[in-house]
Amino acid sequence: MSAGILAGDEPILVTGAAGFIGFHVASKLLRDGRRVVGLDNLNAYYDPALKRARLAELEPYPTFSFEKLDLADREGMAALFAAGRFPVVLHLAAQAGVRHSLTDPHAYADANLVGFLNVLEGCRHSGCRHLIYASSSSVYGANTRLPFRTSDNVDHPVSLYAATKKANEAMAHAYAHLYGIPATGLRFFTVYGPWGRPDMAMWLFTEAIIAGRPIRLFNYGQMRRDFTYIDDVVEALVRLIDHPATGDPGWSGDDPSPATSRAPWRIYNIGNNRPVEVTEVVRLLEKELGRPAVCELTPMQPGDVLATYADISALQAAVGFQPNTPIEEGVARFVAWYRSYAEGRDSEARRGAR
Fold first, then answer.
1. Which of 46, 108, 133, 161 is catalytic?
2. Is the bond into 48 cis (omega within 30 degrees of 0)?
3. Is 309 one of the catalytic residues?
4. Which of 5-9, 76-80, 113-117, 164-168 has the lowest mean pLDDT?
């Protein structure tokens, strides 16, 4: 890490450290010898036991400390930032999930809007030198031209979740413009891998195949996703720490680029650049699990999009990002991890039942 961003044992704040991507990023930083403060509220959107299991992997590191705190807790967040004065903030916590935003919209306003404002205010008042935050491929919404480019207009979200992520990008720009906070937004494309989320396709499909339950394939199976393996994502994110956003001297208000600014603000896609049919993922899971899937073809769900496909050229130019995990290898690694985790979870449950 360059001395201009991190010097000595200055702490890095990782929000969502008990979540999927946050856990993996914190793990990588700790292995690299960095000091990490992890924040999470351990909410019950999915089983908190999985979040606690991730934390148990981080806690043995002497350079790791954990804060159980809700992003929407204004006073608590202000106190955390005042005490930590984090030079780098990796803001990966959020209320995730497109479909859940249809049933619990206020959770998205609390975590993704109020919570993000608290992060921005913390960065403003504590001298943050680089904020990297999670956006989402969902912001592309009704766009149909593929691959999705950061130069595309994203004014037509099709879910509240996507709208909050677009709002995060706009809020970060305002703070970069007003207060000079370098802010880098990452539009993640279908990240998967070990320690993944139980509400995502890879986990849901694996669990259903093992149990012999039907898998629901939306839009009658005609869906394509830019599945991106977690290790590739982490490598890019950690590299970006040393590349804070800077103002683009060529930016013009007469023809404004949606991905850059005169302010120190930048948006990147972070995807695999190789969309895969969801049915192909099912086939690979069947192969790894050694049993067939029972598929239930259903109509398109509200808030979903037909395909995602990332143009990653800007991130490649910035930090040499090159995803190199084929979907076959990534699926095999996920299944191996899932089996191990499920066996441990089931053994724990049996011990608790005695």
1. 161
2. no
3. no
4. 5-9
